[in-house]
Amino acid sequence: NWTMENFIDTEIERIRKLVGPTGEVIGAVSGGVDSTVAAKLLNTAIGERFHAIYVDNGVMRLNETKQVHDTLTAGLGINLKIVDASEVFLGKLKGVTDPEKKRKIIGNTFIEVFEEESAKLDAASGGNIEYLLQGTLYPDVIESISFKGPSQTIKTHHNVGGLLENMKLKLIEPLRELFKDEVRALGTLMGIPEELVWRHPFPGPGIAIRILGEVTPSQVEIARKADYIFIEEIRKAGLYNKISQAFACLLPVKSVGVMGDQRTYEQVIALRAIETVDFMTADWYIFEASFLKTVSRRIVNEVAGVARVVYDITSKPPATVEWE
Length: 324
Ligand code: XMP
Hints:
Strands 3-2-1-4-5 form a five-stranded parallel β-sheet, sandwiched between helices. Strands 6, 7, 8 and 9 form a four-stranded mixed β-sheet that branches. It has helices at 4-19, 33-46, 64-75, 86-93, 99-124, 138-146, 150-154, 163-166, 180-189, 194-197, 217-236, 289-302, and strands spanning 24-28, 50-56, 80-84, 129-133, 170-172, 245-259, 262-275, 283-284, 306-311. It is built from twelve helices and nine strands. Helices cover 44% and strands 19% of the residues. The protein is of the alpha/beta class. Xanthosine-5'-monophosphate binds at residues 151, 155, 157-158, 201, 203-205, 245, 279, 316, 320-322.
């Protein structure tokens, strides 16, 4: 009979047989639940012969890289390599304001950095790396065979599919028969922290698509701080698991304000929080007014460069979840 415990055992056996006694595997991890669960399965099956690579693209959230490092390395014992490529990504994003261009630059740069790092790991392992791990879920499999969701045709989605084109690696997809809720259950069984198991989705292009206009280091800092405060307040209010996804967007528009007796002229933060079942359609979340007041006051007081906070009250459709 099919149980999650049986699934783990069977899958680990299958991976061991497939990879053999000396083969090695690489895989990209993002800090999200799918890639972490997939990485933990590989780590359980073949230990140090699985190499996780995390690429810091400079547009992750505040403290995120350190958190991923601590959770995966100390917490889960995964053999992890962190590649700080923030300068490369931010250099290529300089002067770029078009959303699709941002997405393509980030996707392509990710592939370049990942290939370079995996070549280094392969050389270090004596050419033993034969497999690439992907955290593909059943809905992704179905979608790529028969059905393209609206977001797929409207925006270039960043994923690791492009990785296989140049690399001579075979694919391991241990989650390809599972739905999201099953991946979460599996993660819990494998000792992955609840906070990570229930984390909101985060797009591949990171906060670059939540910073409208040019992505510069100072804009990244503003967007990061505002987002951090919003999510912190959501957690404090016990709302995190009631909301499907929440984040702050930085709008490159200046507006006049007053702080103390000083006139200010600074940018706008837009807050987005949605409820959805499948992310194909979504409704904006209804907060208590007092909650929004707290968040707005904190962001304007604590984040230099922001003079005004607005709340996005557009459903999907006609808007998308992300602003770009
Ligand atoms: P949209 O904005 O298309 O977002 O309504 C729907 C869901 O997809 C996420 N999203 C992405 N996820 N790579 C990802 O892995 C991407 O390029 C990407 N773009 C959007 C978005 O955060 C939301 O959960």
